[in-house]
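TODO from last week: model MFS transporter.
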Amino acid sequence: MSSSSLPSRASLVTRVFLPFAAGYYLSYLMRTVNAVISPDLTRELGLGAADLGLLTSTYFFAFALAQIPVGIALDRYGPRRVEALLLLLTGLGAALFALGDSLPVLAGARGLIGFGVSACLMAGLKGFTLWFPRERLASMTGYVMSSGALGAVTASAPLEAALPFIGWRGAFWVVAVLAVLVAVTIFFAMPERDDGHEKGDLQQALRGVGEVLSAVPFRGFAAQSAFFTGGFMALQGLWAVPWLMEVNGYSRALAADHLLWLNVGMLAGQLSIGAWAIPLAARGVPPLRLMQIGLFASMVVEALIIAQVGPSLVLWCLLGVVSATGAQMYGVLAGYFPLRLAGRVTTCINLVAFVGAFGVQWGLGGLVDGLRGGGMSASAALVVAFVLLLAAQALSFIPLSRAGRLQPVA
């Protein structure tokens, strides 16, 4: 495509950035929505903690299963086609969830939603690499991730305030309509650029996936992705509200306020990173160091939350701020690999994060049920579960702390 036929910057923002930002907004909204509606699901369907954890985590399981094929499809067919098709599946899943009246139906619908939104971030990143100058990619990434944080904010206090009027089923009907609208917008509004698509065969693409999974740098970041990124998603998407209600003794409205400020903190953290990442790197704090500092700080904040030391609203907001540094793993890890593998690197590490979120979310529910069955109170069982998650994060921080010694993959 000649430079004279390239869309203007304003056109690119309207036709590329905003539709993908809307998709990622819906993705994160769906990721965290069950945290607020969990009391309604428990009451209406008679779910236990393990059932609730399974229902919510099917999103992460389906999302994780989709990552490798999505990465290959994005390289072969482009983000416009892939993202539009998958968002139609999101709309279908949301409609089925709104109609569901049993655990199997709801779990299947939530899994379909997870599969449908599995490309929202990666398709956006792929689209940005095709249409925006390389020097703008860091800021574009920060802004699109901020749209996800805005989705998480919407799924907290605003959703809780709307539930008495539309109910949890009505909320999912709204999402179904929005998903279809965004899919149509992406397909018809986004410009096409075929020169960004990989033409290699499937065997070659899978061989690249194997190179990524077997590399030492990938293994060095895998545990961090599972227990920090995945663990944060498990808390944000479900277990923060039960903790605040059972351990702190708050009402659902007050717990939703805390979730709102957790997500506001994440939004502030991501915007701050977007604004300060380059100046910090110039002062000797590159993205890897920033991530190490932020995730260590997140363990400190989690310990204070568990010990109930300090104002809870401030602590949960601060947890969102420092946990935002975990998103640096996509760019940091990709820097250890050749550019030809960049797409598969990000989808593979995303796979680990969502497998971790699935395991942590469901595992915490099973542990809580088991401890309560043994006579422990719900609040005490949640404390034990949170302490074990913190211990897993501490162990995963060891290889992360040594990541600066890793050598790039040839």
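Done. The first helix runs from residue 9 to 32.
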